[in-house]
Write a structure and sequence with these properties.
The protein is of the alpha/beta class. Helix content is 30%, strand content 19%. The chain contains 7 helices and 10 strands. The strands form 2 sheets. Strands 2-1-3-4-5 form a 5-stranded parallel β-sheet, sandwiched between helices. A hairpin with a 2-residue loop joins strand 9 and strand 10. The N terminus is likely disordered.
Length: 262
Amino acid sequence: MPWDLRSVTMQTSPAPELDATAGITPDILDGGLADDLAAASLAIARRFHAGATMWCIAPKWEPHAHHMAVEFVHPVIVGKRALPALALTDPDIVAQARVSVRAGDIVIAVASADDPKVLDLMRRAPAWGALSVWIGSGARPPNGAADHVLWIDDANPLAPATGRFVLMYHLLWELTHVCFEHPGLLVEQPGDCTDEVCVTCSDEGRLAEVLLPPADSLGPALVRTAGGEEYIDVTLVAPVERDDLVLIHAGTALTRVGDQGW
């Protein structure tokens, strides 16, 4: 990255303003969190540059969802962009997100690693084509649970109320705008593959969410993937139900994806 996160933090949020009694001290950025924040900010900036909307979720701490949305929507610094962000607060957060999130959007959640709603939401995000960001503390989610995991290793159940989560999404907002100041970063560079049909890429399995089960035992199922809706053969994993997750390749569902999803 072309900047040092600690130096940006100290410039935008001067040390004297940090509340040490709330656990907000510069050493919060140690242990890899600084790198994780920088990587997440770049990914978020690229999505916003491409037209994304950010969907903010915090099932047990709803004020965090509203606060995150306000941070990105409200251009508090002259010349900074107002970025589209909304809080999702319906009790059935997965159903609300399913009809709200478009391919290319951002889903960001503040939650513990064992929050069942967020676990389910994060495992579905790849099928919806959404970038997923998970902020939390204590025990960590499984590897691969989200595209970006921003975590504080503090098992204290009151950690969400200390202000450290607020610091993290403030930094995400600030660093996202730092990325906007470097237009060359905003478009992801293509990989090394230049073939019209790449054997390696075409062998990739894709996550899909079932929209409509087959009408009969040999019929196709309509599924949602990051690339849109398509019909696939589900003979190998039948029967399937609406909202089931399956891994597909070459138009065929090869296996079901269980509750853990990673």
